[in-house]
C-alpha cells in the first residue's frame, strides 16, 4: 500500500466532533462566519474562534479564495481550525478546480507549519458554493495524496462527509488510488 493511501480515510459525520490536531473550515472571504459547516464550527467552538478571525480580518482584510488562515479551535476537541475559502462554482472554466486544489494544498501547508499531524477536511465548496460533488471529490483526494507524497510530517488526513453522496464519492476515489 502506498504511504499516501494508507494515510487517508473517510468518515461520515460532523467535523466539529473530530479530535484531531486541525479541522478545516469551509469559510468565506470575510472570515466572519456563515452557514453550513462554517456555522456549525462557530456554534460549537464558541466566540474565541470568531474573535481570532476578526483579528485576522482586521490585519489582512479577510482571506482570498484558495488561501487559508489558522486560529484556535475554541471549545472544540481539535487544537486548531484552519479556515479556507473555496471557490463559488460558476461554469468550471473560471479557475474553480485550481482554486479548490489550492484550498487543500494551502490548508495542509499551514497544518505542517503549525506542527499538526492529523487534519480533518469537510467537502469544501460542495454545499452553498455549488461545486459538483464528483469533481470536488477527485480534486480533494488527488491534491491530498500528492501533498502526502511530499512530506513525512503528516500522519493522517480524514475526509469528514456530512452526506452519503460525498461519503461514497470520496470512498470511491480512495479505492481507485494505486496501491504503490
Ligand atoms: N461537518 C462536516 N461537513 C459538514 C457539516 C459538518 N458539521 N455541515 C455541513 N457540512 P458548506 P461551501 C458539509 O455549504 O459549499 C458558508 O456560509 C456540507 O454537506 O458548509 O464551501 C460559508 O460561510 C457540504 O458537503 O460550504 C460560505 O459563505 C460541505 O460541508 C459558504 O457557506 C460544504 O458545504 C461556503 O460554502
Low-confidence stretches: none
Q: Give the overall silhouette.
A: globular
The CATH homologous superfamily name equals Leucine Aminopeptidase, subunit E, domain 1
Are any ligands bound, and if so which?
Answer: ligand AR6
Rounded mean pLDDT score: 97
Query: Total strand count, please?
Result: 6
How far apart, in Å, are the first and last alpha carbons?
6 Å
* Rounded Rg: 15 Å
The tally of helices reads 6
Main sheet characteristics: 6 strands, mixed
Count structural domains.
1
The CATH C-level class name: Alpha Beta
Describe the overall structure.
The protein is of the alpha/beta class and 180 residues long. It has one domain: Leucine Aminopeptidase, subunit E, domain 1 (3-Layer(aba) Sandwich), CATH 3.40.220.10. Helices cover 42% and strands 18% of the residues. It has a six-stranded mixed beta sheet, sandwiched between helices. α4 packs parallel to α5. The chain is globular. It starts with a helix and ends with a helix. Bound molecules: ligand AR6. Ligand AR6 binds next to β2 and α2. The site of ligand AR6 has 25 residues, from β2 and α2.
